[in-house]
Design brief:
By secondary structure, this protein is mainly α. The protein contains nine helices and six strands, in the order H-H-H-H-H-H-E-E-H-E-H-E-H-E-E.
Length: 371
């Protein structure tokens, strides 16, 4: 759906405004979308950056906590070793001096024991030094982990805020899309009042005859990629002729015009839509309001670049680019409206449907030909 921010459209404009004025007004409505698009994209990008930062800080926090736990374990082991050394020294140092001098080895045994006690003392001192170093490391790493935790909390809050802003921007843009369809409905109604009913009926019959003729034609011969209409002088070709071209690359001459000015579809889709349009007119007393139909590749690119991510199909993948989709206004775009409910019940009999992904209020205006 081509969407735009609504401008200062005058809902009380009188019928003296001509078709040119109405289309200028519609163009002005579309002109405001660029600013809205930039805002939405900037907020979404901010959310992505904050989400990445949050993931990095979460990883850093886990690593810091792991190092702190490791250092604490090392400190405990070092203190235990020092205590063991002290106990050994104490046990080895509890000697009777007389027994030492009068022992079987005399003073030499005492000297050996003295050297052993000195060695144990040195070991104990080294273990205490290591325990103190481990304590300092544990404290430092704990502070690092706490700092990272604080940063993670800040990043979590920033990511939450960015997500809310991004969601608000998308909702705002979706709201503008719906408002634009409403405005286009009003403008198309004004244009319809200025059209000659007899001329409009003649255009409907001519378009239907052309589409039926084209839909009945055989496809192009094998190897024929000229893209020229098959025959008949009706200005469009068979559906298989159009299907031979890539998405968004179908020559306009191969597409059949709809009664709605400027709109075209593949022959089989056009025939089914025009017949559905006739049934709609019999029910509601007016033609269907068509906001968009076939969408060439360059327009798909423009929409993809302008719209918030997810609001337009990736270029070359849109059903609009195959001439098999329309975006409708005039009440069909409102969930629960008589027009929308009638379309849900009737359109499938003509091969048209509001696809499941577009339901639930997501894109009630989008309808695809699915014979």
């Amino acid at each position: 759906m081509t969407s735009a921010a609504p401008g200062a459209a005058d809902s009380d404009a009188g019928p003296e405004a001509g078709p040119g004025d109405a289309r200028v007004e519609l163009a002005e409505l579309r002109a405001g979308m660029e600013t809205l698009r930039r805002t939405a994209v900037e907020r979404i990008e901010r959310y992505r950056r904050e989400s990445t930062r949050l993931a990095e800080l979460t990883e850093a926090r886990e690593a810091a906590e792991e190092r702190a736990e490791s250092a604490d374990g090392h400190r405990t082991r070092a203190r235990t070793a020092a205590a063991q050394q002290a106990a050994t020294a104490y046990m080895g140092g509890d000697l009777d001096m007389v027994h030492a001098w009068t022992g079987p080895n005399g003073p030499s045994e005492l000297l050996e024991r003295g050297a052993y006690l000195t060695l144990l003392g040195e070991h104990r001192s080294a273990d205490l030094d290591r325990a103190e170093a481990a304590r300092i490391a544990t404290s430092t790493l704990a502070e690092v982990a706490e700092t990272v935790e604080d940063e993670q909390a800040e990043a979590t809050e920033a990511a939450r805020t960015a997500r809310e802003e991004a969601e608000a921007a998308v909702a705002e843009q979706e709201g503008y899309v719906r408002t634009l369809v409403e405005e286009q409905t009003r403008l198309e109604a004004r244009l319809a009042e200025e059209r000659d009913p007899d001329a409009e009926e003649a255009r409907h019959e001519e378009a239907l005859a052309d589409a039926r003729t084209a839909a009945a034609l055989p496809g192009p011969a094998d190897g024929d990629s000229s893209g020229a209409p098959a025959a008949g002088g009706h200005g469009c070709a068979s559906g298989s002729s159009a299907a031979a071209h890539a998405n968004g690359r179908i020559p306009e001459a191969l597409l059949c015009p709809l009664p709605q000015p400027g709109e075209r579809l593949r022959a089989d889709a056009a025939q089914a839509f025009i017949e559905l349009d006739g049934a709609f007119r019999a029910e509601f007393g007016r033609r269907m309001c068509v906001a968009d139909s076939y969408r060439p590749y360059h327009e798909q690119v423009r929409l993809f670049e302008e719209m918030t991510p997810g609001m337009a199909a990736r270029p070359g993948t849109s059903q609009h680019g195959l001439g098999l989709a329309v975006d409708l206004c005039g009440g069909v775009h409102r969930v629960g409206s008589p027009e929308h409910e009638w379309m849900l019940a009737t359109a499938p009999d003509h091969g048209w449907d509001n696809p499941s992904w577009a339901r639930g209020g997501f894109e009630p205006w989008h309808w695809e030909f699915t014979p």
